[in-house]
């Protein structure tokens, strides 16, 4: 591994070249070329051979921010894959800068001859007396803002499902002590009746399949996870995996007897502790608190869902559709996955309303919405666009598959037995327009317009059709 100081790197590497390479990545596209060049020149260039370690979990490594310039790196922890850096501008280590924790629990390995630029922790420090921040700190602010935008967009996509009933809370007990698990589960069954409990008695099994279950609440004892000098690293690894479930956590352990251990857990984000052996009353008190907090949070989520749902059809409303479309558009630069959009319109709906009244017209709209919901995939979003128009957004879906989904919806609507049908051949029908990003449009507004134009082409061609945008 060859490290170059800033002065050496300016002579040895073409900064202009790497500025141009990483400028298009999501972390740097809003930074000017001059500022980006100045930032890179303050870092330390590191070249690596294929298979060479940049970091090793057995070696102490102070917090550093790493930016990939060339090649490919893989990040692992205890032989578990964490992430891959294989696009110029990919970053690693920003969380160690925030928490001031070394990256000693991670291996960073080059998968081919690679080049990175590294910024040590001290470049990001700002004292209370400073009236200006360094340009490297300016870079860090851009990275954190983009991370937040990405997390928000991902959350928007994950919340696309309209729930018909309250989900049953899933609680995980990760503890190697059988008697302790038994006591905790027995208390949970009394305090939190409508919950489902999964016991995990092996830390090894949990590390092998950490996301096999999507927990709403986790109770764990890190004391027996491992003994010796690497215990803290193993506990940190376990807590970080648990935290990635985005669920509240309760640590019940003899490990919590010592103040320094509780301080360590607090630094990792754990806020609730109970020392073994524990009384049933203390456990009941904490579990009651968690149960109350869970249902308060669930009520807030339900309020959000109601605010984002069309009351007549149960589909997402226009506001939710716009948020979802913006989120998937924002994620495209990183994930490079095409997405498609379907616009559907009920054929001759005005005539139906005039003949049978708005109440029966509402029944038609609700029935069409129900068919659309049954035909789409998990993770897709169906929304009422307005009046008798519907939109379906299909993440990670090319045009060919979008047309197949649209045709399935079209056929299911045509064969359904609606009341007082008056469409051609006595069937209620819909017409569909399909457009795909990025091949058909480079903005969400243009994508909607292209799909809408295709829809009205289908209307003019006789209705009950699926028309996709044709490539130029």
Break the fold down into its secondary structure elements and pairings.
Layout: E1 2-4, H1 6-12, H2 15-22, H3 33-40, E2 44-48, E3 53-55, E4 64-70, E5 73-77, E6 80-85, E7 91-92, H4 94-99, E8 107-110, E9 114-120, H5 135-158, E10 170-174, H6 178-191, E11 196-200, H7 203-208, E12 217-220, H8 231-243, E13 249-252, H9 259-267, E14 272-274, H10 280-307, H11 318-335, E15 339-346, H12 349-356, H13 358-375, E16 381-386, E17 389-394, H14 399-415, E18 430-437, H15 444-460, E19 466-468
Parallel strand pairs: 10-11, 10-12, 12-13, 13-14, 18-19
Antiparallel strand pairs: 1-2, 2-9, 3-8, 4-7, 4-9, 5-6, 5-8, 15-17, 15-18, 16-17
Please describe what this structure looks like.
The chain is an alpha/beta fold and 472 residues long. It has three domains: 2-156, Jelly Rolls, CATH 2.60.120; 170-306, 3-Layer(aba) Sandwich (Rossmann fold), CATH 3.40.50.2300; 318-468, Alpha-Beta Plaits, CATH 3.30.70. The chain is built from 15 helices and 19 strands. A five-stranded antiparallel sheet has the order 1-2-9-4-7. It has a five-stranded parallel sheet with strand order 11-10-12-13-14. Strands 16-17-15-18-19 form a five-stranded mixed sheet, with helices on both faces. Strand 18 (430-437), helix 15 and strand 19 (466-468) form a beta-alpha-beta unit. Helix 6 (178-191) packs across helix 10. The two termini are 49 Å apart.
